[in-house]
Amino acid sequence: MNLNAEKEYNLKYHLTGFSVAFSIILVISIDEYIYEFHTLIGAILAGVSAYILSAFFVKLSFLDKEISKRTSRILTVLAIFLIFFSFYLFQL
């Protein structure tokens, strides 16, 4: 493994971060408004839905588009912000 290799910046990498945030928002909103889950079941469902969304994004070939390092950093900050905002929004 080469530690000095150039890192690839593409949209697939960042959409996995967004899939985690979306899964948390989806499961918590279902838990809040439709059906009340136990905490462990909700965590498992969030993990499974994040995995399914990540696998779906990996299959999409048009997301192999290269992006700049600056855009990559902006998307990373946005994904982290979405995750923290989802916890704040649902008061966890």
Please name the defining characteristics of this protein.
single chain; 92 residues; mainly alpha; 3 helices
What is this entry, summarized?
The chain is mainly α and 92 residues long. It has a domain at 10-59.
Word description of this protein:
It is built from 3 helices and no strands. The longest helix has 23 residues, at 11-33. It has helices at 11-33, 39-59, 69-89. The chain is 71% helix and 0% strand. It has a domain at 10-59. The chain is elongated. It is an all-alpha fold and 92 residues long. The mean pLDDT is 82.
Q: What is the number of beta strands?
A: 0
What's the story with the biggest beta sheet? none
How much helix is in the residues? Answer: over 70%
Q: Write down the secondary-structure element order.
A: HHH
Mean pLDDT: 82
Tell me what portion of residues adopts beta-strand conformation: under 5%
Secondary-structure class: mainly alpha
Q: Please work out how many helical segments DSSP would assign.
A: 3
Q: Uncertain runs with pLDDT below 50, 5 residues or more?
A: none
Overall geometry comes to: elongated
Distance between the termini: 39 Å
Radius of gyration (Å): 15 Å
Write the layout of secondary structure elements.
Blueprint: H1 11-33, H2 39-59, H3 69-89
